[in-house]
Amino acid sequence: MQDLNNKTVVVTGGNSGIGKSIATAFHHHGAKLAIFGRDQQKLNDVAEELQDRVMTVQGDIAKLPDIDKLHQQVGETYGKIDVLVVNAGIADNRKIDMVDEQQFDAIMNVNVKGAYFTVQKAVPFLNDNASIILISSMACHGGWPGTSVYSASKAAVSILAKSFSADLIDRGIRVNAISPGFTDTPIFKDRSIIPKATQLVPLKRFADPEEIAEAAVFLARSTYIVGIDMLIDGGLSTIRPAFRD
């Protein structure tokens, strides 16, 4: 297992939710952090909370010049990148007859284009044998009402873990994905849906974001895991309910 002490870890969307927990977990393992996000105040809050070995870069992952700025500033401050966690993403659930071009483009620009070029533009800045972790979603492992665009975007992210691995394996760079299920983060603004959603999960609870974060740490340290999509959803996608008389 690779030691993360003093390694350089970049986390996009690291200012809240799962991304913040991932950044915090790597920090606890001794890594130097670069956190990228759109909200400067939230970035400042995370940096103040972690206190040391952390830099922040404000920007929008859907804008390629902002991705360039991220990698350039990380390179100037820390040098080469050891772990890149591509977490930034958005969701907006609508059934097929309510989807318009603006919504489609917004989701694809962040979740697919943003993820793709974050990795592509990182390649010159990555150490050999680096780890890349793409945050996908349980939503791409089955059909859910109102998630056609979001699920398609995350399916693209999951397959990129395999395709990027094939492109980068000669440098020993490993790319893997994580597909979280229901996770207790601020994205669930309507808390009333949580009890009903919980009943769908075989474990009968949402994941803590720290559980997703430790999976990211595990993948970063596991030097023989390449091109997988780790599904972390409490059994929702794999365990079927029993028939009742």
Helices and strands, in N-to-C order?
A: EHEHEHEHEHEHHE
The CATH architecture classification is 3-Layer(aba) Sandwich
Total domains: 1
- Here the CATH topology equals Rossmann fold
Shape: globular
* Relative strand content: 15-25%
Strand arrangement, major sheet: 3-2-1-4-5-6-7
Span of the ends, CA to CA: 48 Å
Name the structural class: alpha/beta
Q: Would you kindly provide a brief summary of this structure?
A:
This protein has 245 residues and is α/β, with parallel strands linked by helices.
Topology:
Blueprint: E1 8-12, H1 17-28, E2 32-37, H2 40-50, E3 54-58, H3 64-78, E4 81-86, H4 101-122, E5 126-135, H5 148-168, E6 174-180, H6 194-198, H7 209-221, E7 229-232
Parallel strand pairs: 1-2, 1-4, 2-3, 4-5, 5-6, 6-7
Helix pairs in contact: 1-7, 3-4, 4-5
Report on this structure.
This protein has 245 residues and is α/β, with parallel strands linked by helices. The chain has a single domain, classed as 3-Layer(aba) Sandwich (Rossmann fold). The chain has seven helices and seven strands, in the order βαβαβαβαβαβααβ. The protein has a seven-stranded parallel sheet with strand order 3-2-1-4-5-6-7, sandwiched between helices. α3 runs parallel beside α4. It is globular.
